[in-house]
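Lecture notes, continued. The same structure-token format from the folding unit now serves as the input rather than the output. Read the line below as a description of shape only.
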């Protein structure tokens, strides 16, 4: 085991033998490095003022990611190169093309949010296949909030910057790759173990080492992307004496497809899994696009969204409707269970001390299966769902429903199937009478609460209306409305 965290900040190598487990990248930059260009806004991963870029070498290429520094722990930077707004000027002092565009297009008003916007814009330029259309720019900048409402000049600046040529990072790409390759060589497949006055950090070399670590300390906190755990620290002010960071465990970062379906490892982010999931479940791609922001999806993991057991997580109801299977491990023992059985009650999951989620498998829908998923929230972008409904109906050649799986998030204390509505549909032709029966049964399936996101009445009403929407889109002779994918109809959806 190594006994230090190693990463680059700009061109400088840092080797930290004493890294407090919950020290955030934001606090380290501002308080210990004096780099105040990275701003603290919300301190919970919503506003983007703290956006930084992290670059890693993956499968022989450099991958640039925009991340929220406020909910990323420093220990999670091991093996990476971190860039802040202070790193954007070229060595000769020339402004980065994004900075220059922001100046020329008057994209800054009070200026507080500007460094975060600039970092997101630079990262978007680095994304493979990045384009400058309005939709792509909206997606790239959805995680950055301007309180002066200066979005129009910022978008103009983004379009201008996308037309600019190479930047100094392109010229340094080979040097950056060499630095990161050297860090990998020094790591030599070993894990990291730190211990200090503030607590311990463990970065397992593989899932076997992770299993051993959790058997030895079942109370340790597993951190993959920290988009949830980070808030325990910044908002809940919790002390986490032992963090086990799994985000870079190689055998947990795999996506494989076989006869059973698409298997997604515990450390795979939503951003990395999105295309594979969308190819299997087209509506799921649109749901993932609305999970948090680019910065959040670059860190948040598919399995972490499951493991934390939130009743309003967007992934679980989609995967439950698809018939997903969860893979858990404790020591050398492994087991699988239907995903819906993992959630027992509010805050309680079927996971023993020392056990961890290893992967989730999503089966491919059958050739006659209709799959739809709908997210309902107050804001379109970057908002927690009031409820989310996911539907998988299999029809025979005569249009009779032979199989039904319906799951909701936000309707109960856990993500849960609507078994009464499912029973009301099976064996019936998919027609108006079946829809009416399912709507009536759905009302008895759930007893939702009223909270800040929606009332009991609203949730019941909208859940039933989502069934009607499903019928309008999939019943024989139906024509999908153009609003189904938020106005972005694709040819495949017609």
């Amino acid at each position: 085991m190594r006994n230090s965290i190693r990463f680059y900040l700009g061109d400088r190598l840092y080797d930290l033998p004493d890294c407090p487990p919950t020290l955030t990248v934001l606090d380290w930059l501002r308080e210990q490095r004096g780099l105040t260009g990275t701003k603290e806004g919300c301190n919970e991963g919503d506003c983007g003022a703290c956006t930084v870029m992290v670059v890693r070498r993956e499968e022989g290429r450099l991958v640039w990611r925009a991340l929220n520094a406020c909910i990323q722990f420093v220990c999670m930077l091991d093996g990476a190169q971190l860039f802040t707004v202070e790193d954007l000027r070229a060595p000769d002092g020339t402004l980065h093309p994004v900075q220059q565009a922001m100046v020329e297009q008057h994209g800054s008003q009070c200026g507080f949010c500007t460094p975060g916007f600039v970092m997101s814009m630079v990262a978007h330029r680095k994304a493979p296949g990045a384009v400058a259309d309005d939709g792509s720019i909206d997606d790239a900048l959805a995680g950055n909030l301007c309180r002066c409402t200066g979005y129009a000049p910022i978008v103009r600046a983004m379009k201008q910057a996308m037309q600019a040529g190479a930047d100094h990072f392109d010229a340094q790409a080979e040097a950056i790759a060499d630095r990161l390759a050297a860090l990998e060589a020094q790591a030599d497949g070993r894990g990291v173990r730190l211990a200090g006055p503030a607590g311990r950090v463990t970065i397992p070399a593989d899932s076997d080492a992770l299993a051993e670590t959790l058997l030895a300390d079942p109370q340790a906190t597993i951190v993959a992307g920290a988009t949830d755990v980070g808030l325990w620290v910044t908002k809940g002010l919790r002390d986490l004496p032992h963090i086990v960071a799994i985000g870079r465990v190689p055998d947990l970062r795999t996506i494989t497809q076989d006869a059973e379906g698409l298997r997604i490892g515990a450390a795979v982010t939503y951003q990395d899994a999105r295309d594979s999931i969308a190819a299997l479940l087209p509506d799921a791609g649109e749901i993932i696009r609305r999970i948090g922001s680019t910065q959040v999806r670059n860190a948040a993991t598919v399995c972490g969204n499951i493991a934390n057991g939130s009743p309003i997580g967007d992934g679980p109801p989609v995967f439950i409707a698809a018939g997903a299977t969860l893979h858990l491990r404790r020591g050398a023992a492994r087991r699988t269970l239907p995903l819906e059985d993992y959630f027992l009650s509010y805050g309680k999951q079927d996971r023993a001390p020392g056990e961890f989620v290893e992967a989730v498998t999503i089966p491919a829908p059958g050739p006659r299966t209709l799959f739809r998923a709908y997210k309902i929230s107050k804001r379109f972008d970057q908002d927690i769902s009031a409820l989310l409904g996911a539907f998988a109906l299999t029809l025979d050649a005569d249009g009779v429903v032979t199989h039904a799986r319906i799951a909701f998030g936000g309707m109960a204390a856990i993500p849960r199937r609507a078994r009464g509505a499912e029973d009301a549909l099976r064996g019936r032709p998919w027609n108006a009478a079946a829809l009416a029966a399912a709507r009536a049964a759905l009302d008895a399936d759930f007893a939702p609460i009223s909270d800040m996101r929606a009332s009991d009445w609203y949730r019941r009403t909208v859940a039933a209306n989502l069934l009607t929407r499903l019928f309008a889109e999939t019943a024989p002779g139906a024509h999908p409305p153009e609003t189904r994918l938020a106005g972005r109809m694709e040819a495949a959806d017609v």
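Point for the exam: The chain has four domains: 5-86+172-245, 97-166, 256-362, 369-493.
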